[in-house]
Amino acid sequence: MVSPKYHRVEFGSTLVRALHGPTTTDPYEEHMTVNTQPVADRPDPRAFGLPVVEQDQIPDELRSLVAGVRSLVEAVADTEADPATLAEVDETVRALTDRIATGPRQVGTMVRRTMADGTDELGTITNIVAGPTNPAAPPLELERVEGGVQGTVTLSTTYQGPPGLVHGGWIAALLDQAVGSASGVETSPGLTAKLEVNYRNPTPLFTPLEVTGKVVRTERRKVYVSGWIRANGQVTAEAEALMIRVPMEEG
Ligand SMILES: CCCCCCCCCCCCCCCC(=O)SCCNC(=O)CCNC(=O)[C@H](O)C(C)(C)COP(=O)(O)OP(=O)(O)OC[C@H]1O[C@@H](n2cnc3c(N)ncnc32)[C@H](O)[C@@H]1OP(=O)(O)O
Q: Domains in the chain: how many in total?
């Protein structure tokens, strides 16, 4: 039984120093099959000095505010209101910002979410794609499917690149999240080392996008993952990724 003992780091240099710290024996078997790693052997963010918030402990008021601000961003992006109205709203928004700016949450604060099948997933609370407290996140909520994860998201003009279409960088971000999450729930959390995106067809705004990530194979700390985005049943983008899992020491 492997007892996880992690490379402790002071955050500020995030996970990088942990990942580049001295590695000892890799507790994972070569060519391990997916879905075999006990949850207890997964890295505990607290060992890295990172606080963990349970997703269901996020106050409803904050969830509601996040959704409201997301709508505000969409409204601002597309507004054609007259200058006087804009000036009035600007002043109000700035006053509200001052009221709510209580100081930054600790960088790297994690959130633990329980998926529909009971699997726990860890991510940063302000993750730009999925973070529940981040109004800039669409957000993409993924659920466990066989071999990986899947979720549906609909993007507004806030995510526009070409006319009526999703920005290519955001397509890559959605895929990165899906492959990272698939690797995390099927094996253990890690970082993306390589992400190749193939843009097959335009990805439309205002259309439900089905985002999927599935683990193909694992080799020591390397996890090879595929990802897809589908709109109206058609693949618009696909990805091949290499994730490198956070190392653990023998304890
Ligand atoms: C405590 C809990 C925290 C949890 C935390 C996770 C949160 C869970 C969120 C999930 C959802 C997020 C989804 C978004 C995911 C991102 O957006 S991640 C952000 C973007 N990625 C980065 O910033 C990574 C930057 N790169 C690096 O830090 C380092 O290069 C890496 C990737 C950590 C690898 O460094 P390393 O640990 O020193 O790896 P190293 O020992 O050199 O290599 C291990 C193996 O991988 C191979 N390898 C390494 N890099 C490459 C490469 N680029 N190409 C090919 N092979 C490679 C090596 O050849 C070696 O192979 P073998 O010898 O075993 O055959």
A: 1
> What is the C-alpha to C-alpha distance for residues 51 and 110, in angstroms, rounded to an integer?
6
Determine the residue type at 3.
S
Decide if 178 is inside a domain: yes
Pocket test for ligand 1, best of 44, 134, 215, 244 (most atoms within 8 A of CB): 244
Tell how many helices (H) and how many strands (E) occur in the chain.
4, 9
Coil, strand or helix at 213: strand
Residue type, 116: A
User: Which residue segment(s) compose the domain that 228 sits in?
Assistant: 14-57+105-245
pLDDT in tens, 33-44: 333 344 446 778
Q: Which amino acid is at 231?
A: A
Write the pLDDT tens digit of every residue in 110-149: 999 999 999 999 999 999 999 999 999 999 999 999 999 9
Q: The domain that contains 26 carries what CATH number?
A: 3.10.129.10
Dihedral sign for Cα 150, 151, 157, 163, please: positive
Centre of ligand 1 to C-alpha 41, Å, is 18
- Whether the upstream peptide bond of residue 139 has omega within 30° of 0, thus cis, is yes
Query: Does the structure's ipTM exceed the value 0.90?
Result: yes
Å from CA of 215 to ligand 1 middle: 15
For 215-239, give the DSSP string. EEEEETTEEEEEEEEEETTEEEEEE
